[in-house]
Amino acid sequence: MITVAVVGAGYWGPNLIRNFAACPNARLVAVCDRDEARLKKVCAPYPAVEQVREFDSLLARPDIDALAIATPVNTHAPMGLAALDAGKHLLIEKPLAASVRDAQELVRRAREKQRTLMVDHTFIYGPPVRRMKQLLDSGDIGDLYYLDSVRINLGLFQHDVNVVWDLAPHDLSIMDYLVGRLPRSLSAFGTCHTDNHRDIEDVAHLNLDFGEGLMASFHVNWLSPVKIRHFIVGGSKKSIVYNDLEPAEKLKVYDRGITVSQDAEQQTGVMVGYRTGDVWSPHLDSAEPLQTMVRHFVECIHEKKTPLTDGEAGLRVVRILDAAQRSIKAQGGRITL
Predict the structure, then answer these.
(1) Which stretches of the chain are assigned E, i.e. beta strand?
(2) Taking Cα atoms as reference points, which of 123, 116, 179 lies closest to residue 316?
(3) How far apart are CA 272 and CA 66, in angstroms?
(4) 138-169 residue pLDDT tens
(5) pTM of full prediction above 0.85
(6) Count of structural domains, the chain
(7) What are residue 90's DSSP bridge partners?
(8) 200 and 226 share one domain
(9) Could you tell me the residue range of the domain that residue 324 belongs to?
């Protein structure tokens, strides 16, 4: 059994608590939060789990192997480094850290201490994203042309990070998993519409250039009257549309696109034709992504394996977030990664 304590019982913490409590190879020992009333409410279904108010008290406990941190992003680095120095394995909610420097230090320290460092990029462990990866790797999609993502809804406004740092890590982590490398440059635009948070953008657009004809675009928004979760993968043979809000058929594969040929007889140059084929929805498992992620974390500790969403993956996402922030402040100036 890997013994685990969850730090933070706010928005995301209860989801981690529920899944660690249900994980067959882990034992949830404690939950830590400064808010006593929240702590009691969240822990009510788990009477055997200890309620802890002070984070530091967890560090010296030999009965805790790993910590799962679900606290505001500016606390990730200090808490994470303290946990690694105390010899704990570490799962951190996205994004890994609030700066590239902090993310690099977490990766370095985990390597130095020989501890497992994993980022909770939950979507990577979901059946839709795993199936998209299989389709890409099999060659069914052909050459990758573009990625297009829309993640918009009304609220939930954050007070410590803007909409890019809040929403974009989900889709950037999916992109990183599918493409497997950093873009060569990006440009971002964002704006704020609340007087008391002039430095916290609530609408933003990101454009990433990978070279070799591959581009990716992301739209994140806290002000939209409708909730949309679309991720489109465009390829030379087929395209994939991932709609996370669709209850039954989250993935659809389209055999639609263009064919390009040279007109040898006339002087018109390139000929573009349109191809319209079948649309099909692949079967997906019903596994809960968060439970898969939790089990993978425990498995990596047991077997000393590198997690699918390790510190390096988290660092790549933070690099993009940091570059996007700098581009926004530079009025869309292109940043080279």
Answers:
(1) 2-7, 26-32, 50-52, 66-69, 89-93, 117-120, 144-154, 185-191, 203-211, 214-221, 223-235, 239-243, 251-262, 270-280, 335-336
(2) 179
(3) 56
(4) 999 999 999 999 999 997 888 889 999 999 99
(5) yes
(6) 2
(7) 67, 117
(8) yes
(9) 124-286+319-336
